[in-house]
Each structure stands twice: as structure tokens, then as C-alpha cells.
């Protein structure tokens, strides 16, 4: 028998396999609904129960990839074959698998547009379709919205701390794998970053690709001066030098030898406050006031805030790990819950009341009340058809499975973020001890909830 | 002008674009080396400077995807065109872009096999190739090894806490996007999980797909009893019911109506210790001693340890967020450093000594010293050619750009993990306050370091 080498797998997602990028139970429940001939129109809403630690708002992100998914999800014949052979489906008839072969998402989706500020309990997505369709798409929607929203929110905090200094995403090597780095780069840009080091993301999203030079470049030459000179020869208009490989102040003195064409220096280690001040003095003493100081190395919003409050003369922050993993709050607990169901021609409100995990029934809308200066005053979560005062945040994005929404570019989304943040009063966006933004539930919604809770408790809690 | 809808982007990685899934500076440095005609053979090593919070060892993971990358990285003509147009490359000649069009990785790679235990400072990968090739691949290698190693390590801690009860990965919805969920499922299995809810991962890796049912199933029927009965009709051999939608104890009483064929019940909220005990009593009182209790809901190694120490009668743990994001330590700080370079026929040791970020020069090997019972005693990081006592951990995996290593399956890797952990003495794997495993540097390596440090300081620190 010849010795056959196993080929390494990429584990890349492909459009062909989108149907199974989900939890198994979505497929068993789908089979269950199918076998029970339950094709009721159901509505699910995606929301966050509690804001993560240190967060006072969310920047919604991830909708574009959700729309890609919902308009591309299919089950290839090979994948249907794979599912059919799983022992758990032993008692499920062939018709279900035929159904999967022809599966497309044909429902309606409402969403809060990317870049918009949202708060706990506010539905960011509302999906209405035959119950199998709404169920099957849960996992992917949650994964995408949870992650991108989490990173856009973190990035917005870091950008806020930087007080107008530019923030660049340097996080690719610390993101949760190479694809997460691309989604993170997108979300960081939405949150206000000026660019990314991730070339794939820059290419796909048409955003600035940014970079300086690594220690290895400096180490690869006989001495630091040589490495600086040679870099400048090749990148005369983009000479930002990394000066901390051996000794930061010596590095700064080597960098100034480049002269007027020097664009920037980067410091990646040590006491950034002290070093940036001393490096600034060295640059200025040579008449290089225009040379920018870039700082990097385990930065986050608190460290940046601290540096700038203490007068660190830093112009640009390269932020990695902390931003692309949202390190202090690395998961957003978004959930996706059944809120109502059309059963035998009747609309039935649905809710659960597991301990600490109660959900509100019925299709909802979020109404944002603003003052004359367009500043945000409060949000009311009400029923979809209540027509309350305020701007409705959920808008239609998919109708009968087709996109009915003009997708903004990430540049436009970045402007939406910036505009939203400009109208969120300062007490609600302080980095620490921010006030809680007022979000209430409408009387109509509370009434529906009490009614549904009573009915369901009478039936189910014996 | 007709109104054209922008198509939503998936942002999926593809083999065609692997060349640019990297930081921009890798490409500018590559251009720099090329323009300087610097084609020295360089060696880089990938290692972790400090173990993350609460970690006393690492389970190496991610090598298979690294090997896929290194044997598939190319630059398509479209991508070369994109790069050529970036302003930063204005002064770079056409030859470099022709070079990229023909780029393949042709170097040698040594690696610590997946599933092996490693510690801080130990090279997990060693890459030797012309310097451009070693440089270009840095970011992807770091991203893949950092993430998978981080998750495999976290999973191994959770499995250890579960004391033989099974642990299942339920984390897809909270991973950092859908691709991260697949890589996480792989790493969780390597770390000792019995299965995953992620169907794509199960299909690709041939590992068990596991799942129960969600609250939405229960909510979609008129009452809980109905939902249980109907699930059992379709999945008679796999009836594990979720009992906490309305009231856990009422749910348990509804579940026992299924009778002897009931396989399990899942509790996803509330006080798991008290509820599991009461649910066990309800099951046992109906003669359903064989019915398993599955617990889920924000579990981690500490909560599982606490539950089991207090006698919670739980058989299986579904773990999500905490495991797939390694929530208490969501980033592994792996770095990739130039350690030596062949320049004009001479081997030159390379190192940096940035504050707190000193690196050791020269090609290294990790020697693991074991006792007669195969238990791990200590590791020595030495020079590649020192031939020290102990088992060398780094083995050749790529030679001249071709894989020279018989890739194990994830099942085999899981056994390697389990075998490694069995031989790591208990004080080094306690969940809290574990002892620090002894890792020393060889005299030969220390001598090389002193020599290189002196030479480089004389040249660079003025």
C-alpha cells in the first residue's frame, strides 16, 4: 500500500457550505418542524441582554455579512448527503432532505443599520419567515453580529480616548484567526480607525492600508543606521522608522540622520510617556517638528487616555490585541429569540421566562427620541405597529429573501458612527462610569408581555 | 443612470488571496529586501514570551492550517496589480512585482507537533528561508498559532475540571465570527472535547456533531409537554430535552412523561447546583437513573470545578463563550523573531533587546527531559546542534517548501494532548496556583546570547 500524505485543510468557509455553518440543533429542530408540518411564519429578534463590562452603548456592525449569508445560504447535494448519514436523522424522512436541497431564505428582515448606536434589549435584527428558515439562520447571524458589534464598539472607545489622534488597526496577528482579523479590520474602521495593517481587508473594503517596519528589518542589517538609511532609499516618502530595537533614544538619534524627509518614528516598548517626550525633544532639537511619533504595544483606551492626559506628544496609535479581541470584554452575549408566531391564522406572542433570561414577546420597533439639536434623549422599545414618537431605528433590509436596502460603504458607515457618537451626550460615553442611557418599554409592549406571561404560566408552570 | 445595488461581501478568505492576508509592513519590508538585493537565508522562531493569565502550559495547535498556508500562498495577477497601485510602492521597481507573481514558499520549517505541551520561550515553529519568504508569512502564522493554541489550552483546562464528564463545544454563536468558530471547534477537540455543535467543523474534521434543542422549539408549541412529545416522535433515540424555558422543575416533570426512552435533559439557567440535584431526584423517582443531565450557560473551568466539588449530578457540560473566546485570557501573545541570518556565507546571530522584549539568538531546539515513568521533569532550550540530553520537540515538517510530515488527524492529536497531560505532573496543571514548570536555557545558548548582545550593543547603542 503506497504511503499517502494527508493534505492539510484550510478550514476556509465557502458559499457552498453555508448551510452547515451552524449548530447541529438548528438542523434537528428544522427536521422536527418539517416532520410536524409546522410551517408557521415566525419572528425572531436578535438583541443583547446586558451590555458587556465597561460598555455604555454598542456600535451595530456585521449587517453586510449577514445579508450576504441570507442571500447565499444553500445546502449542496454533498452536504445533504453528509447530513442524511448522521445517526441523529435516522428517523427523518427523505422529504426533509429534498427540502434542504431546494432551501433558500425567503423571509423578511428588519435591521438597525451599521454604525448606529444601540443599547441592551434593543432588537438589532428582526427576522420573519417560515419557522424553519428563521431557525436555521440563528447561529451565523449571532456569530457575525456579536463579533463585529463587539469590535466596532471597542474601537469607538479607543478612538474616543485618542482625542483626534489617529488610531490604526495593527491587530491581525492577535485576532482569532486570519478571517477574524479581516472582520475585525472592518469593524475597527466602522468604529473610527483611520486604517488597517491588514492588506486583504484594505483591498476588499477600499480602506487605507497602513504600516511602518518591524524589528526584523532593523535586525537584518549590520547596524541600525544602515537599516534606516536603506529603508529610506526605497520608501523616501513614507519613512516611518521603528526606533526601539536596541535602545529607543539611540534609535531616535539614528533616525534624525535621515533629515527633513523623515516622516515618523515608532516606539513599541518601554515607558511610552517618558520616551515619547524625550524622542520629541531629540526630533525638535534637529528641526524635525513635522516628524510624527507613532506609539504601539498593548495599547487600549485607558492607556491612551492616560498617555494623552499626561501630555505624551504622540500623534498616532497603532492598536492591536486589545482592540481586535475586545480584550476586556471579548464576547458579546447577543441572543436570538422567538417573539411571535402565526399559527392557524392567529398571531401568537411567544416569550420565555427562564431565571434571569426573560424575553419580551411580539414584533418590536425601537423609537429614538432626539432633541432640537438632534441629541439623543431616550429610546423607547415598543410594538412594531405602535407608531410611537421618535425615529424608528429598525428598517427593512430584506423583503421576500431579496435585499431591499442600498448597502452603504464602510466609509459611509464610519460617518454614521461618528455622527451617532456626536449626538450621544458625553455622560453616556465616558470611558469609565458612564451613565446608563435611558431605554424604556412602551405601555403597549408591557401589556402584551403581562398577557402572554399569564397565559404561558397557566399552561406550563404546574 | 440606473440605481445599482451594491452586492454584500462575504469577506471569506480564499487561496487566491493568501498572499495579502498579512500586515502591510511585511510587503514593504519584502520590497525593501528585494530592492536591496538581500536574499540572505534567515531563520525566524515563533514563541510566546509569557504564558497568559491563569495558564501554566500551552497545548500547541494550528500547525495543519499553517502547513496549508505555506504550501498555498501565492499572489494572483489581480492582487499584484492592487499592490502596485498603493502609493507606498511608488519607488519600487517592476521586478519586485514580477517576483511576487512567481512567489512560492520554498523554505524549511520545524515545528512542535500539535497536541504537545509547550511553555514560554519555547519555539513552536522555526522557519528558515530567504529572508523575504520568512518575513512575508509572519502574520498569518502568528494569527493561526496564537488562536488555536489559545483555545486548545483553554479547552484542556475545562476538560480537566470536568473530571471525566464529557465537555462539548457549544460556542459557535460567540466565537469571533463564523470562521473562528470552525477553528475553535477544531482546537476544542484537540484540547479534549468530545464533540462540537458546529456542523461544518464536524463535517470537515470528522468529529462528532452534538446538539439538543433550543428554547425556540419549546416556545413554538402550545405547551411544553407537546413540544417534548413531538420532539421524541422524531428523535426517539436522541431525546435530550431542554427543561428551563418556563420553569426547570415543572420542565423535569414534563420530561419524565417520555418514559424510559428519554436520554437526557438540559438545564441552561438558574442555580445549576441546586437544580441539577432536584432534577436528578425527579428523574430517579421515576426510575430514570439512566437519563443524563446536561448543563450549559456561561460555564468555565472554575464553575465546573465548583459544581462537581459540591456534588452536582451533572453528566455532560456544554461550554460556549468562555471556551471559544478563552475569555479570561482572550489573546496569546505569540511573537515571531529573527534569530539568525546567513550573510555573505557567514552565520550571524540576531537578537533584539527592547525593554522587556529581549530575544535569544540562533536556531534552537527544545529538549524535554522525562523520567523512567515518562513523566516530564524539565525542559532545556538549547542550540539546534547542541545534542543535549532529552527528547527534541521540534521536528521537520516542511523541507524546500514541501510537506515532509505525515499529518495526524484531530483524533490522533487529541490523543497526543491527553498523553502529554497524563505525563505532566499534577502541580503543573492545577487550575489555580499551578507551579511553574522548569524551563532553562543551555549554557551554549547563554554563551551565544552574551556574545551577540555585546557585539550588537557596541554597534547600536551610542
Structure description:
The structure is a homodimer of 462-residue chains. Chain A is an alpha/beta fold and 462 residues long. Chain A has two domains: 15-151 and 329-460, nicotinate phosphoribosyltransferase, CATH 3.20.140; 212-296, TIM Barrel (Alpha-Beta Barrel). The first copy, chain A, contains 16 helices and 19 strands. Chain A has helices at 24-35, 63-72, 77-84, 94-101, 131-136, 138-161, 178-190, 199-205, 215-219, 224-234, 248-255, 272-285, 301-309, 321-324, 410-422, 443-460, and strands at 41-48, 58-59, 108-111, 117-118, 125-130, 166-169, 195-196, 240-242, 264-267, 292-296, 316-319, 334-343, 346-349, 364-370, 376-383, 391-392, 395-399, 402-403, 439-441. In chain A, the strands form four sheets. In chain A, strands 13-12-1-5-3-17-18 form a seven-stranded antiparallel β-sheet. In chain A, strands 7-6-11-10-9-8 form a six-stranded parallel β-sheet. A four-stranded mixed β-sheet of chain A has the order 16-14-15-19. The termini of chain A are far apart. The mean pLDDT of chain A is 95. The interface between A and B is large, with 148 and 148 residues. Chains A, B: Residues 166-337 form the Nicotinate/nicotinamide phosphoribosyltransferase domain. Chains A, B: It is an enzyme of class 6 (ligase). Chains A, B: Residues 392-445 form the Nicotinate phosphoribosyltransferase C-terminal domain. Chains A, B: This is Nicotinate phosphoribosyltransferase.
Amino acid at each position: 500500500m503506497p504511503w499517502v500524505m494527508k493534505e492539510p485543510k484550510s478550514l476556509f468557509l465557502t458559499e457552498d457550505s453555508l448551510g452547515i455553518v451552524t449548530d447541529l440543533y438548528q438542523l434537528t429542530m428544522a427536521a422536527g418542524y418539517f416532520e410536524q408540518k409546522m410551517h408557521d411564519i415566525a419572528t425572531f429578534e436578535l438583541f443583547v441582554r446586558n451590555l458587556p463590562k465597561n460598555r455604555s452603548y454598542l456600535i451595530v456592525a456585521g449587517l453586510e455579512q449577514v445579508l450576504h449569508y441570507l442571500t447565499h445560504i444553500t445546502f449542496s447535494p454533498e452536504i445533504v448527503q453528509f447530513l442524511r448519514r448522521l445517526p441523529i436523522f435516522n428517523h427523518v424522512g427523505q422529504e426533509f432532505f429534498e427540502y434542504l436541497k431546494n432551501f433558500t431564505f425567503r423571509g423578511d428582515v428588519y435591521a438597525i443599520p451599521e454604525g448606529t448606536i444601540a443599547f441592551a434589549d434593543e432588537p438589532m435584527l428582526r427576522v420573519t419567515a417560515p419557522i424553519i428558515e428563521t431557525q436555521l439562520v440563528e447561529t451565523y447571524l449571532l456569530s457575525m453580529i456579536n463579533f463585529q458589534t463587539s469590535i466596532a464598539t471597542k474601537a469607538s472607545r479607543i478612538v474616543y480616548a485618542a482625542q483626534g489622534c489617529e488610531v490604526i488597526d495593527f491587530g491581525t496577528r492577535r485576532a482569532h484567526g486570519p478571517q477574524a482579523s479581516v472582520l475585525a479590520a472592518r469593524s475597527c474602521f466602522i468604529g473610527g480607525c483611520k486604517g488597517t495593517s491588514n492588506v486583504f481587508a484594505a483591498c476588499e473594503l477600499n480602506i487605507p492600508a497602513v504600516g511602518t517596519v518591524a524589528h526584523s528589518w532593523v535586525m537584518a542589517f549590520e547596524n541600525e543606521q544602515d537599516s534606516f538609511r536603506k529603508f529610506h532609499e526605497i520608501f523616501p516618502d513614507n519613512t516611518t522608522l521603528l526606533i526601539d530595537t536596541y535602545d529607543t533614544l539611540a534609535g531616535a538619534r539614528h533616525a534624525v540622520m535621515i533629515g527633513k524627509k523623515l516622516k515618523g518614528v515608532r516606539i513599541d516598548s518601554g515607558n511610552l510617556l517618558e520616551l515619547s517626550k524625550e524622542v520629541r525633544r531629540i526630533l525638535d532639537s534637529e528641526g524635525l517638528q513635522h516628524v510624527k511619533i507613532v506609539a504601539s504595544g498593548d495599547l487600549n483606551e485607558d492607556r491612551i487616555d492616560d498617555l494623552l492626559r499626561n501630555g505624551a506628544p504622540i500623534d498616532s496609535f497603532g492598536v492591536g490585541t486589545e482592540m481586535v479581541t475586545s480584550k476586556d470584554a471579548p464576547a458579546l452575549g447577543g441572543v436570538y429569540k422567538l417573539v411571535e408566531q402565526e399559527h392557524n391564522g392567529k398571531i401568537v406572542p411567544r416569550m420565555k421566562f427562564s431565571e434571569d433570561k426573560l424575553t419580551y414577546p411580539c414584533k418590536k420597533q425601537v423609537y429614538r427620541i432626539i432633541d432640537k439639536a438632534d441629541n439623543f434623549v431616550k429610546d423607547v422599545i415598543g410594538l412594531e405597529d405602535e407608531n410611537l414618537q421618535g425615529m424608528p431605528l429598525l428598517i427593512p433590509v430584506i423583503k421576500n429573501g431579496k435585499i431591499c436596502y442600498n448597502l452603504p460603504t464602510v466609509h459611509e458607515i464610519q460617518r454614521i458612527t461618528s455622527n451617532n457618537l456626536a449626538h450621544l451626550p458625553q455622560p453616556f460615553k465616558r470611558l469609565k462610569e458612564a451613565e446608563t442611557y435611558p431605554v424604556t418599554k412602551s405601555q403597549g409592549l408591557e401589556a402584551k408581555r403581562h398577557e402572554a406571561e399569564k397565559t404561558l404560566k397557566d399552561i406550563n408552570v404546574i
